[in-house]
Amino acid sequence: MLLHIPGILDAQQLAQLRQALDAADWTDGRETVGAQGARVKRNLQLPDASPLRQQLAKVVLAALAKHPLYHAAVLPARTLPPRFNRYEGGGHYGFHVDGSVMALPDGAQVRSDVSCTLFLNGPDEYDGGELIVSDTYGEHEVKLPAGDAIVYPSSSLHRVAPVTRGARLASFFWVQSLVRDDGRRRLLFELDTSIQRLTTSGADADAVLRLTGVYHNLLRAWAET
Ligand SMILES: O=C(O)CCC(=O)C(=O)O
Ligand SMILES: [Fe+2]
């Protein structure tokens, strides 16, 4: 499921991140990928070990923790610390698939089920830079307002188009979901959002209660912790 999640960061948080990133020391993004990725990756990143990256990652994680739509869609179990990237002067990232299993700083392993890009500056500030996700329905071009995120299955081939004017700033990260299968996660998301809508529209309370039970029992059946 490819889903646009608006309003992860507010204007104040964006200004804080932006100020820090404008003064940051960037490094070659090829440092964090294997040989396959390095052949097609031309961008900049905050170094993994930099204190700034760790500080800004906390801001992003705290904002995600407060976002109900993000939780409903992703059902996060473990999240890799967010990274930060910058594309400018033709910078791009050709078609690739993200690594399937990655290590947390404490050595624990995380399976990447969901990939996320959180846009940190607006589409008026650069040309190009679309995230293009390829799935069985075709190619989807994504370019979102600052503070908004896109989540998509980590199994998808995807690329970032060259940035031909200005600079594109983003945070990106991977999540192991409680529900590994994208189709099942989508069904749960549809059920959850429908239950929320029925609740706010004053639908029959007993029917809503039973549907809520179905949601939790499906999640119980499918969740892996
Ligand atoms: O910059 C983006 O939107 C995505 C980056 C990406 O695909 C990656 O680093 O694996
Ligand atoms: Fe990627």
TrEMBL record:
Binding site for 2-oxoglutarate: 168
Highest taxon in the source lineage: Bacteria
Stored Pfam families: 2OG-FeII_Oxy_3, PKHD_C
Residues bound to Fe cation: 96, 98, 158
Alphabetic keyword roster: Dioxygenase, Iron, Metal-binding, Oxidoreductase, Vitamin C
InterPro entries: Oxoglu/Fe-dep_dioxygenase_dom, PKHD_C, PKHD_hydroxylase, Pro_4_hyd_alph, Pro_4_hyd_alph_FE2OG_OXY
GO biological process, alphabetically ordered: DNA damage response; intracellular iron ion homeostasis
Entry's cofactor comment: Binds 1 Fe(2+) ion per subunit.
Cofactor(s) required for function per UniProt: Fe(2+); L-ascorbate
Protein name: PKHD-type hydroxylase
